[in-house]
Structure formats: C-alpha cells, structure tokens
C-alpha cells in the first residue's frame, strides 16, 4: 500500500485552523493532488483554493474532502452540520434560504460578484 492509499489519521489533524490548513495541504500533496492541481481540475483559481483557509466554500471543501477520502465535516467540523449540510448562512448561495436579490436595496447596493472561476485558458 503506497502512502496515497492510506486512510487519513484524523486524530493527527491540528485543531488550530491555520495549522489544520497546512496539514490539509500536506495531505493533498501526499495523496497526489496538490492544491494547485485541484484548482485546475475544478476550473478555479489557486486563490479560490487558498480562500478555504479562512472562508467557508462548500464546493471546494467537498472537493478537498473527496480527494482525501473523508467527509467535509471531518476536516471542518465548525463549518458543517452533522447531517452534512453547511453550517452558515451566506446571501446568494444555494444553501441559503434568504432571497437577497429580491429587494431594491440589494439591487442598488453596488455589490458586484467576483468570480473565482477561470473563464479562459491562457496560452
């Protein structure tokens, strides 16, 4: 059994979020998919992957957990409910029940979403 096939020892995972992020990056590397490669596979920027360190992003958290063979709630217990749903409310996100753009205030707020998705290949 090579190291990429070994299950994660979650008991070794640090509880401090900054140290945990370094541990997760290390685990991705030894499982053959460094963060930059995962970003390419998902069609997003490296910056979006790094944002998971401090900001909840369910799609990216799920992708990281899938690569490591665990559930997202095991890597970020403070961000996920036991039923597997994200533990947060964010406007404009599928997991939210708030209709943010339905009000005039939202339309006139000057909010402009910034995409983390790579829209064109540079060549």
Provide a descriptive summary of the structure in words.
The chain is mainly α and 123 residues long. It has a domain at 13-82: Orthogonal Bundle (434 Repressor (Amino-terminal Domain)), CATH 1.10.260. The chain has helices at residues 17-30, 35-42, 46-51, 58-68, 72-75, 104-107. Mean pLDDT is 76; it is low at 96-106.
The shape, in one word, is: globular
Helix content: 25-40%
Structural class: mainly alpha
Major sheet attributes: none
Mean pLDDT equals 76
Topology, number of strands: 0
Distance between the termini: 38 Å
Unreliable stretches (pLDDT < 50, length at least 5) are: 96-106
The CATH C-level class name of the domain at 13-82: Mainly Alpha
**Known CATH architecture of the domain at 13-82:** Orthogonal Bundle
**What is the CATH T-level topology of the domain at 13-82?**
434 Repressor (Amino-terminal Domain)
List its salient traits:
123 residues; 434 Repressor (Amino-terminal Domain)
Quick recap:
By secondary structure, the chain is mainly alpha-helical. It is 38% helix and 0% strand.
């Amino acid at each position: 059994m090579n190291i990429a096939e070994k299950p994660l020892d979650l008991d070794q995972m640090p509880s401090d979020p900054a140290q945990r992020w370094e541990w997760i990056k290390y685990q991705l590397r030894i499982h053959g998919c460094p963060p930059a490669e995962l970003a390419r596979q998902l069609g997003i920027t490296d910056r979006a992957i790094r944002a998971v360190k401090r900001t909840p992003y369910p799609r990216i958290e799920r992708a990281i957990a899938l690569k490591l063979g665990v559930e997202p709630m095991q890597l970020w217990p403070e961000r996920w409910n036991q039923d597997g749903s994200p533990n947060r409310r964010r406007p404009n996100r599928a997991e939210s029940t708030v209709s943010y753009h339905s009000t005039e205030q939202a339309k006139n707020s000057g909010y402009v979403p910034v995409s983390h998705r790579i829209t064109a290949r540079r060549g």
